[in-house]
Amino acid sequence: DALTPADMIFGAILLVVVTEATRRCLDMSLPITSILFVLYGLFIAKLEPMRMLDQLYMTTEGVFGQALAVSASFVIIFVVFGSFMERTGVGQLFMDFAMALTGHSAGGPGKVSVISSSLFGTISGSAVANVMVDGPISIPLMKRSGFPPYFAAGVEATASTGGQIMPPIMGAAAFVMAEFLAIPYSQVVIWAIIPAILYYVACFAAVHFEAKRRGIVGVARSELPKLGIVVAERGHLFLPVTILLAVMYSGYSAPLAALAGTLACFPAAALRKSTRVNVTLSNVIEAMVDGAKNSLPVALACASAGIMIGVVTLSGLGIVFTQWVVALARDSLFIALVMTMFAGIVLGAGLPTTPSYIIMTALLIPAIMKLGVIEPAAHMFALYYAVLSALTPPVALAVFAAAGLAKADMWDSSWAAMKIGAAGFIIPFMFVYQPALLMIGDWPAVIWSFSTACVGIALFAGGLHGYFVKAASHWQRALLSAGGICLVFPGVWTDLAGAGLAAVVIVTQLIERRAASSPAAAQQ
After folding, report:
1. Omega cis (within 30) before 168
2. What is the pTM of this model?
3. First vs last Cα of the chain: how many Å apart?
4. Average pLDDT over residues 274-285
5. In this structure, how many other beta carbons lie within 10 angstroms of the beta carbon of residue 281?
6. Would you tell me how many other CB atoms lie within 10 Å of the CB of residue 39?
7. Given 38, 155, 469, 487, which is the most exposed site by the fewest CB atoms within 10 A?
8. Is 166 left (phi over 0), alpha (psi -120 to 50) or beta?
């Protein structure tokens, strides 16, 4: 049916309100992108204005599309759950747990940041929120231990960014993915487990090798909390997460599982005297307020993404873009993946993760699927680079936040973050070529792929940071990096090549270290 005058007025008002609210709640980048898509539809695709307004306002392929529906039905309750968890004091638990576990080792404060951020990522899907909770404690610790301010900011930003791909509560884009694929959110969580572990292995290895190269030691054990005491006094705060997972994997819906976890937060905190102080009416009210405030940016990002998707769907831009990518790649999957990676990083430089992922879903995922990538791997590939764009300049929000806390230069911090997370940038290629890393396939293949990938990532990090058994020379760094890349890609010959290159470096470094510590060397 044709739009009535009232439809036209309210449709136009809706688009203006969504655009302005997004500008106020986020920044200018997303509204500008939405406006550019509308201008494309009007002046390049030559769409009729009334037809476009009908698409964006009156159908489920515009503002009121899948993305906004996911925000309303899935994301909000998980955001509220994270807010409730924070108010129970779980943030300090994560920090103390990480301090007790790794604070004494080389570069201990940096490793504490990685572990605590990964734990906080299990209840928060926001990189910036993770930085602002974890950074005020971890960044000063890293600076005092000897890490330069820019490196401390890079560690915190990289570790916090991984929260959006860290189960069980990933970023909002993961819920959108589940809706697009018509699968339970719990299935997305299963796919994400190994890539998330590999990402944090990369961060941990980078911090370790950088600390060894700089001679940075850990914190004295006498200054650290005791692991047993931390778990005994506050370990019960993990109960809501356990309940959430138990309900979700018992076959119930993800929103119901999040609701069960939310309702369990303050009763769990009341179990012991050490955390009972957080069980107050004001804390409950503030948790609800925080949940509502934190939900707004996600909802508005999804609404703005709906404008872009409506134009893409109506104009057929997605089909044209797919044909263009396939033609440009000349049927080469690797070239198509590289193009998709750069497109995701560029899109993410100006957009939040969710709309960036949604646009990639419309424009790029069909192209790599046409070249043979299975659907789960294609969507995870897009999600990964939409997330990792938070580390890449010039618009790297997580780095901005961390650099501000560290009082460090933003550009230096951003390059440090990219170097720390460099191994993470090749993980999506790994699971595209080896879906076993998404737990797709038989268990022997999953275990073998995971094991070789872990070793490969450690070697790659050692090559980038110039240390393995000892400080590495230029040729040793090159061999470590090459060996790491060989191991992260599947295949018997690549695994053998990677192991051989690693063996050359390790044996050489062991001989050099023994020679340096011999009595003759000591006398010289």
Report:
1. yes
2. 0.85
3. 92
4. 94
5. 8
6. 12
7. 469
8. beta
Q: Which amino acid is at 61?
A: E
pLDDT in tens, 132-155: 888 888 899 899 999 999 999 999
Q: What percent of the chain has pLDDT over 90?
A: 59
Buried b (16+ CB within 10 A) or exposed e, 335-368: ebbebbbebbbebbbbbbbbbbbbbbbbbbbbbb
What is the Cα–Cα distance from 341 to 327, expressed in whole angstroms? 17
Integer angstrom CA distances of residue 225 from 228, 467, 484: 9, 30, 35
Dist. CA 238–CA 243, nearest whole Å: 9
* Any domain includes 495: yes
DSSP 268-331: HHTTSHHHHTT--HHHHHHHHHHHHHHHHHHHHHHHHHHHHHHHHHHHTHHHHHHHHHHHHHTT
| Residue range(s) defining the domain that contains residue 455 | 441-524
Number of domains in the chain: 1
pLDDT at 257: 93
Instruction: Yes or no: say if 377 and 431 are a contact pair by the CB < 8 Å rule.
Output: yes
Q: Sort 326 into a burial class: Cβ within 10 Å, 0-12 / 13-18 / 19+.
A: middle
Residue 152 lies in a domain: no
Collapse the DSSP code of 252 into the 3-class scheme (helix H, G, I; strand E, B; otherwise coil) and give the result. coil
Q: What is the largest CA-CA distance in the chain?
A: 94
Classify residue 155 by its DSSP letter. Answer: H
Q: How many CB atoms sit inside 10 A of residue 483's CB?
A: 27
CA–CA gap between residue 312 and residue 482 (Å, rounded): 40
Those residues with Cβ within 8 angstroms of residue 386's Cβ, 6 or more apart along the chain or in another chain:
173, 344, 347, 348, 353, 354, 356, 357, 360
Question: Contacts for 18-25 with beta carbons within 8 Å, 24 or more apart?
Answer: 18/63, 18/300, 18/303, 18/304, 18/307, 19/304, 19/307, 21/300, 22/300, 22/301, 22/303, 22/304, 25/296, 25/297, 25/300
Cα–Cα–Cα angle for 123, 128, 131, rounded to 5 degrees:
80
Instruction: Report in angstroms the alpha-carbon separations of 470 from 202, 461, 462, 508.
Output: 18, 14, 10, 10
Angle among Cα 209, 210, 211 to the nearest 5 degrees reads: 90
**Is the pLDDT at 42 greater than 80, yes or no?**
yes
Question: Does any domain span residue 114?
Answer: no
Rounded CA Rg of the chain: 24
CA distance 466 to 473: 7
Q: Is residue 166 part of a domain?
A: no
3 state SS of 453: helix
Rounded Cα distance between 354 and 348, Å, is 9
In this structure, what token pair is assigned to residue 428? 């999506």
Contacts of 9 (CB under 8 A, 6+ apart): none
In 3D space, the residue among 114, 196, 123 whose CA is nearest the CA of residue 160 turns out to be 114
Look up residue 449 and give its two tokens: 């792929």
